[in-house]
Amino acid sequence: MKVKVSVIVPVYNVEEYLPRCLDTLVGSTLKDIEIILINDGSPDNSEEIIKKYQKKFKDIIVYHKKVNEGQGVARNYALNIAKGEYVTFVDSDDFIDIRMLEKLYNKGVKDKADIVCSTGHIEVTSDTRKEIKYEFDSKDSHIKYILNNSGPWGKIVKKDLILKNNLTFPNLRAYEDISVVPLWSLYAKKISYVDEPLYYYLIREGSTMKQTKYNDKLTHIYPSLDNLYNNFIDKTKDKYTEEVEYIYIEHLLHAASLRFMQFDKYEEVEKITKIIKEKFPKWNKNKYYQNKSIKYKIVCTLIYHKQFKLLKLILK
Asked: What's the sign of the alpha-carbon dihedral 50, 51, 55, 61?
């Protein structure tokens, strides 16, 4: 059969969430798909769960087991064996609307698009669901993509766009997504959108962005953003400088600084402010930053000026 979409799912220590994820994938309304499950050396019972589903859905589930090297490496492994025209990535603790693949694929075929995204997602906790609508509505679909798509999920991408342009994931333990996912847009002739949230993103304790104990994998944001910055500058000759600047504000100055402060790693926050000062000295004039809330701006300003005690008081 012709595989329309290859669904790539790295699996690591998610036995509690994996059945829900797989139920939505095997229940997809789009037929002619393959689900590639990469067991990244998971120490729990994930393998038993995978084998149960593989036995029942042997025509669409492809299973491989490897040593633990991180989900970026696992995704690259799957990319090299994927048979689909398009690929999509699903985190194994997340799940999808069963209509997602069909809606995105049909839009891609209709528009002859290289990338098709939904315009938002649903954040899920143990007891809540919240729709996140992507910001900065723009007539330029590439700008909209760059600003709102640092994660590989909630979209389908032509497999050849990634492989032929060497846009696979770097060998990092965190932030590997943001290093390359926005870059995909630079090689896409056409990016289309489906105006509906179709991906369910789980917010849980213990994930990289919700860890309760410090792990130096948080410092992987530096090489990740360096790769993004260097490629954008080389490829676009400053065409998207303001968009890249905003990515640095959002993911480095704001989010990463707050995570480092959580563990009293103020030397890392000072490193961040130095990076921002050197690369984007007029960052606070950024037009996308200007659209953010007053609280957001206050937080960024206090971080930049190293007013950590005052910031902690405000955030209490």
From this structure: positive
Half-sphere exposure of 43 (CA within 13 A, CB side): 1
d(CA 274, CA 102): 45
Quick: pLDDT tens for 252-267.
Answer: 999 999 999 999 999 9
On the CB side of 225, CA atoms within 13 Å amount to 21
Domains of the chain by residue range: 5-204, 210-315
Instruction: Give the burial class of 287: count Cβ atoms within 10 A of its Cβ; 0-12 exposed, 13-18 middle, 19 or more buried.
Output: exposed
- Distance separating alpha carbons of residues 222 and 240, to the nearest angstrom: 20
Task: Give the separation between CA 71 and CA 109, rounded to whole angstroms.
Answer: 29
pLDDT tens-digit readout, 232-286: 988 888 899 999 999 999 999 999 999 999 999 999 999 999 999 999 999 999 9
Q: Which helix (H) or strand (E) holds 117?
A: strand 115-118
One-letter identity of residue 128? T
Q: Which residues of 156-179 are buried (b: 16+ CB within 10 A; e: fewer)?
A: bbbbebbeeeebbbbebbbbbbbb
The pTM (predicted TM-score) of the whole model is: 0.94
Written as one string, the DSSP assignment of 120-165 is EEEEE-SS-EEEEE-S---S-HHHHHHHH--SS-SEEEEHHHHHHT
Domain 5-204 has CATH 3.90.550.10: yes
Unique residue bearing structure tokens 């000295």: 281
Contact 276, 252 (CB under 8 A): yes
Distance CA 300, CA 290 (A): 12
